[in-house]
């Protein structure tokens, strides 16, 4: 069994050190950037050298590793790594016509820089890897941890995600049509009827092991899927539910990655329609914005909801008859191609 | 298995070059960079346009060289393992790809798209790392778990061990695993800024080594449980693997090679082997001052008597995200054909460590082969391959 213990989230909303969703921070120019703490744990010199995604990841990991200093592995998801450093280095290449360049941006931009820095700062020699599979990078990292715990029942792992939105990857994805060209306020995200959504970023870090004692939540199951066919998505969901929930039962809450992009809505509608009247439907992208590892923000929310027993009103799309918040199904889809289900319950 | 590298576009061509001690390192002919003719590199000897036509007939506008190299190697691996369409689309077939530069080989296009107000290029969806696995997934309709891993120069070693674990845990029945990399201004300039590119063909483990040469290529392997292989050809078993972190510096190994040592040790423990059972090591052996000395120290720490070893990067250059997979294929060829491939350009041992790699192609009895891949971020991984031999024949 896989249990989530303490977690840390740095997001565009008030999530660090504690969650406070009583007020929703508004997006600017179709973008939700994170509220960065000042990371007292990172030495000033090192902090200056770090790009945003690495800084967020190390800054979120350090407080957890104070409590759990000896992870048996560090497993990080990031689809893009240090995008800003990457383009800064490209800029050097072009500006100086491949002349004498400084390597700092190059080294910082590699996508394993976050996992590597966390290992370096905490002198951790254990299993260390970085999953980068676009919209399923986080789910794959979680799968990795599921297998690690099965391999080593007494071990504990640092699992995390980090992705930054720089002006550059924002622009590339905007040109590709994934961020809306017209202005959308995040409070109107689900009524925009636009092609495209708003951008976001964030970091999530969680301590995961096989122990129920002191846990905040349990991972019941995870399933990923590639494809654009709505009916096979629905079949996968039905099989997933029948394998993991006793027959006739439903999760208390469904949290979807609905993002206002009309092209992706059919998938969210299909998943929602598979639920019955008991299930409360919630959504989160108006808080986080869209990014490759945004499903990790939904997992963080789920852990908070299960632990506190309350579902923040700002997340609710449709209230179901179940008042419980013991079992949550997260469904996310990235660009209509990469789908994931994560079923989380009280420990 | 399937691979393409600077020394050939098939397993057979690669083997021939390794036997004939023919390196693929030379002047850059196809890729446009200011360093063409100045920094020797191991380029795959085919233009991107021709490769695109060869694979797609009508060239695809949105695909990058890295993905094309991957598709080329995957096709050979699929043919070689006789995977049927049914098997490919099965939910029990996983795909684990790896790369460090991804689609960023298109430096100029990426820069344009990062800043342009409108009129993006046709590559907008192809720059990221996942684009390589997704290109394969799309072409063959692979139906199971799909992943992409980037742990710098150990990426595809980690893809291989991740695929093996997916099978062990029952998340897949078979896994197509490997990596792809192409030459890029991004990496050429990055490694050059770090002063670790050699202006000569690299000389792994040599006293006077001057650095590494970048290379490009791709390799993919098909993994299955023994009981599912039936009458298929079995090249070798992946008998163990290790993944450890050096936790020392973002871009160089600790002086005594702690990460490399721990990674090799973890792989031995995972396979249940004693150090003296290793017949041969395909070393990481980049040819940089730092790697070769620290890797040597790690080998000396782990082995009472260092086994035969060499670095095939003296043939292929350092193919970064593809290196672990290319060298895994070579390691398996070592076992399957009972032969060792040399390190080229070696003259004098490093005085502090005194290790001498295999210097010439030779037929030799090989049972257990270790393959090392170490990268930036302290990421170190080791794979061990094995094949039973009874009286010189494969059981």
Description of the structure:
The complex is a heterodimer of chains A (347) and B (395). In chain A, helix 8 runs parallel beside helix 9 (265-274). The mean pLDDT of chain A is 96. Chain A has two domains: 2-209, Thiolase/Chalcone synthase (Peroxisomal Thiolase, Chain A, domain 1, 3-Layer(aba) Sandwich), CATH 3.40.47; 217-345, Peroxisomal Thiolase, Chain A, domain 1, CATH 3.40.47.10. In chain A, 34% of the residues lie in helices and 21% in strands. The longest helix of chain A is centred in the N-terminal third of the chain and has 16 residues, at 52-67. Chain A is an alpha/beta fold and 347 residues long. In chain A, strands 3-2-4-5-1-6-11-10-7-8-9 form an eleven-stranded mixed sheet, with helices on both faces. Chain B has 395 residues and is α/β, with parallel strands linked by helices. Chain B has two domains: 2-227, Thiolase/Chalcone synthase (Peroxisomal Thiolase, Chain A, domain 1, 3-Layer(aba) Sandwich); 237-394, Peroxisomal Thiolase, Chain A, domain 1, CATH 3.40.47.10. Chain B is 34% helix and 17% strand. Chain B has helices spanning 11-19, 48-56, 65-80, 85-89, 107-115, 130-140, 155-168, 185-193, 226-229, 258-271, 289-302, 313-316, 323-337, and strands at 2-5, 93-98, 146-149, 174-181, 217-224, 237-245, 280-282, 308-310, 339-340, 362-363, 368-374, 379-386, 389-390, 393-394. Chain B has a five-stranded mixed sheet, with helices on both faces. Chain B has a five-stranded mixed sheet with strand order 6-12-11-7-8. Chain B has a two-stranded antiparallel ribbon with strand order 9-10. In chain B, a hairpin with a 2-residue loop joins strand 13 (389-390) and strand 14 (393-394). The two termini of chain B are 20 Å apart. Mean pLDDT of chain B is 96; it is low at 390-395. Classes of the chains: A alpha/beta (347), B alpha/beta (395). At the A-B interface, helix 3, helix 4, helix 5, strand 3 and helix 6 of A face helix 5, helix 6, strand 3, helix 7 and helix 8 of B.
